[in-house]
């Protein structure tokens, strides 16, 4: 894979643009691993100005410009490697898009495959890519937090990222005290607070908004990719079952 930009060793631009990206969805348990990893990095570590740590969430193709501007790209994510739950696995280079698509944990991974494909097509593909993924334990738990096996891999994942950066001459140091989020955003960005303030199952439906799920008045219109533009309406239960199957890969 090539890039039309100068090499990271170019004397005219000695410092590479580095993007550390956490992708995933905090609202679905272990699917939030990537975001939690990058949040921990932001709170507890110092890194040079040419290194950016970013919560990519589920933005998909909206991240393409961020990727195009990076020379080195590190991605934290929950990946279905088919390994024991909680297993940490690193993938580098050309193999990264393949692992993001073979067994999708979530729809955002398809979107990030497209991001990489678009960046390559536009001639601005990162020179080095490292995917740091963890095998999820549970994702079908709306509003849930990381399971203990996955949470335990946050620091090892960050250590792998730091080692990768160090191999490219980039130094990262740990803070003596974490950066604190503001009062409102900490309700989500502070994982401990997020866990402790989560309503119990007797108060909140774990699969979504029970006003919709338990109502027989709602239907979701599904338009298949048909040449004649035809559409059909399917019941909510059928739609949810299809969604769960798709996201399981």
What tags apply to this protein structure?
single chain, 249 residues, alpha/beta, Rossmann fold, five-stranded mixed sheet, 10 helices, 9 strands, globular, disordered C terminus, Pept_HybD-like_dom_sf, Peptidase_A31
How would you describe what is shown here?
Belongs to the peptidase A31 family. GO terms for molecular function: aspartic-type endopeptidase activity; enzyme activator activity; metal ion binding. With 249 residues, the chain is an alpha/beta fold. It folds into 2 domains: 18-189, HybD-like (Rossmann fold, 3-Layer(aba) Sandwich); 210-248. It has 10 helices and 9 strands. The strands form 3 sheets. Strands 3-1-4-6-5 form a 5-stranded mixed sheet, covered by helices on one side.
| CATH architect. name of the largest domain | 3-Layer(aba) Sandwich
CATH class of the largest domain: Alpha Beta
Strand content: 15-25%
Number of domains: 2
- Return the structural class: alpha/beta
Euclidean distance between termini CA atoms: 27 Å
Stated plainly, the CATH topology of the largest domain is called Rossmann fold
| Average predicted local confidence, pLDDT | 77
What low-confidence regions span 5 or more consecutive residues with pLDDT below 50? 6-11, 225-249
Number of helices: 10
Order of helices and strands: EHEEHEEHHEHHEHHHEEH
**Radius of gyration over C-alpha positions, nearest whole angstrom:** 20 Å
Strand order of the largest sheet: 3-1-4-6-5
Gross morphology is globular
Largest sheet: 5 strands, mixed
Helix content: 25-40%
* Total E-strand runs: 9
CATH superfamily membership of the largest domain, which one?
A: HybD-like
């Amino acid at each position: 894979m090539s890039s039309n930009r100068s090499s990271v060793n170019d004397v005219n631009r000695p410092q590479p643009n580095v993007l550390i990206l956490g992708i995933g969805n905090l609202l679905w348990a272990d699917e939030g691993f990537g975001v939690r990893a990058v949040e921990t990095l932001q709170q507890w570590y110092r890194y040079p100005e040419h290194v950016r740590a970013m919560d990519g969430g589920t933005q998909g193709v909206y991240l393409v410009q961020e990727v195009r501007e990076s020379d080195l790209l590190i991605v934290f994510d929950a990946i279905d490697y088919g390994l024991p739950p909680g297993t940490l696995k690193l993938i580098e280079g050309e193999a990264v898009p393949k692992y993001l698509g073979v067994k999708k944990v979530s729809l955002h991974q398809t979107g990030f495959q497209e991001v990489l494909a678009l960046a390559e097509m536009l001639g601005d593909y990162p020179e080095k890519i490292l995917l740091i993924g963890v095998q999820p334990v549970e994702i079908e738990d709306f509003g849930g937090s990381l399971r203990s096996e996955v949470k335990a891999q946050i620091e090892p994942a960050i250590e792998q990222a730091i080692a990768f950066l160090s191999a490219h001459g980039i130094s990262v140091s740990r803070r003596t005290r974490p950066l604190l989020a503001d009062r409102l955003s900490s309700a989500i960005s502070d994982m401990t607070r997020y866990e402790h303030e989560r309503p119990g199952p007797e108060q909140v439906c774990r699969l979504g908004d029970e006003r919709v799920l338990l109502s027989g008045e709602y239907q979701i219109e599904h338009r298949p990719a048909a040449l004649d533009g035809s559409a059909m309406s399917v019941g909510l239960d059928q739609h949810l079952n299809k969604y769960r199957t798709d996201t399981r890969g």
